[in-house]
Design a protein that fits this description.
The protein is an all-alpha fold. It folds into two domains: 80 residues, Helix-hairpin-Helix base-excision DNA repair enzymes (C-terminal) (Endonuclease Iii, domain 2, Orthogonal Bundle); 102 residues, Orthogonal Bundle (Endonuclease III, domain 1). Helices cover 56% and strands 0% of the residues. The chain contains eleven helices and no strands. It starts with a helix and ends in a 26-residue tail after the last helix.
Length: 213
C-alpha cells in the first residue's frame, strides 16, 4: 500500500473524529508536578506513576521541598517506578537548577527545558505542549510504533519520526496528535499483539493484518 498525502489526511481525520481532544493520563496540579511525573514515566506506566506521585506530591510538590527530601528519601518514594536511581539523581539535579536559575519555576521554552538533567526531547515537548500551549509532538514508544506502522512517519529514531510527523500533520493538530497516537498504541496498536480486527484504521494501515494491502 502506497501511503499518499490523501491517505495520511484520512487517517488523521479518523483520529480526530474518534478521539477528539485527549488529556494527559498523568495526574498533576502544577507545572513542576507534571515535569516530575513525565520524568518518572520513562519505561514506566502512567498508572504506576500516578500511584507513586499520589504518595509524593502532597508533601514534596516544589523543587525546594524535594531538595529537602534528599536523594535517598526521593529514591525510596519513587522506587517502584523503575530506574529510580537515575531518575532520582536527575530530579534532584533539576530541582537545584530550578531553584538557582529559575526561582523554582519550570522554564517555558524547549531549549531551556532540554538543558535540565534527565529532560530529553520527549519530556520537553510534552511540557511545552501541555503547559504552555506550544505546538509540539512528543515521540514516546507508542507514538514511535504507531507512526511507523501507519507510515504517517517512518524512521529509526524518535527524532526522525518527530520530524516526519511534523511534516505530515497540520501544526494545529500537533499536540492532540501526540495523545491520539499514545492512546491508540495503548488500546489498539499494541506492541506484541495489535488488535487489527478492532482498529478503525485497518483499511488504511499498511501494517494491518486484516485491512486492504
Amino acid at each position: 500500500m502506497v501511503m499518499t498525502k490523501k491517505k495520511k489526511a484520512a487517517i488523521l481525520q479518523r483520529f480526530q473524529d474518534t478521539y477528539g481532544i485527549l488529556k494527559p493520563a498523568l495526574h498533576y496540579a502544577s507545572d513542576f508536578e507534571l515535569l516530575v511525573a513525565v520524568v518518572l514515566s520513562a519505561q514506566c506506566t502512567d498508572e504506576r506513576v500516578n500511584i507513586v506521585t499520589a504518595g509524593l506530591f502532597p508533601e514534596y510538590n516544589s523543587p525546594e521541598k524535594m531538595l529537602r527530601l534528599g536523594l535517598q528519601g526521593l529514591e525510596e518514594k519513587i522506587r517502584t517506578c523503575g530506574l529510580y536511581h537515575g531518575k532520582a539523581k536527575n530530579l534532584m539535579a533539576t530541582c537545584a537548577v530550578l531553584c538557582e536559575n529559575y526561582k523554582g519555576e519550570v522554564p517555558r521554552t524547549f531549549d531551556e527545558l532540554v538543558k535540565l538533567p534527565g529532560v530529553g526531547r520527549k519530556t520537553a515537548n510534552v511540557l511545552v505542549s501541555v503547559l504552555f500551549d506550544t505546538p509540539a509532538i512528543a515521540v514516546d514508544t507508542h507514538v514511535f510504533r504507531v507512526s511507523n506502522r501507519l507510515q504517517l512517519a517512518v524512521g529509526t529514531t524518535p527524532e526522525a519520526v518527530e520530524k516526519g510527523l511534523q511534516a505530515a500533520i497540520p501544526v494545529k493538530w500537533w499536540s492532540r496528535a501526540h495523545h491520539w497516537l499514545i492512546w491508540h498504541g495503548r488500546r489498539i496498536c499494541k506492541a506484541r499483539k495489535p488488535l487489527c480486527a478492532e482498529c478503525f484504521q485497518n483499511d488504511l494501515c499498511p501494517s494491518s493484518t486484516v485491512g486492504n494491502k
